[in-house]
Write a structure and sequence with these properties.
alpha+beta; two-stranded antiparallel ribbon
Length: 170
Amino acid sequence: MNQLLYVRKNILIFFTILNTDRSASNFTPSAPRRSPLKSVFQDDEYSRFVAADTIRDFSIIDQSIALDGYSFTVEENIVTFYKLASEPLPEVTHCIQIDKDLHVKLFYKGSPVPLPQWFRHGHDCRLVRRSMLQNFPSYLEDEGEKHNSIFEELREFRYSIKRDQCIQQK
């Protein structure tokens, strides 16, 4: 092993040059290498998850896939997940409807909400996975906050029309 001292622009650089003799490359370690751990074969978890997550028909949708904070009702051709707010009066604030063809409709405070783009493109607006359903509550919350004033205006307009119709009937 040789050492070399080099000075360049007032910087002292210290190099160590190793012996490049071929016999040095045949170094044998003093401690023997541990044998590798045995690999344990496991089934692919992803394929099992996809199989369990797939919704093939309307009958699969039941209480087992209920959403946190949402109530659940089943009618002959429609399953509805809804969230109730009790202040100041009880009202349905969030609603997710799934028909027998697995098409989804979203509502915020009684007004329809457009389906998310990720759901419209590539899925034909059909619910094909249970995990898709888990994304709708946060989407409804975001859309409701974004367009709350519009939804309130539509709601007031709808009630004013009903009130006018009741007055005219009397």
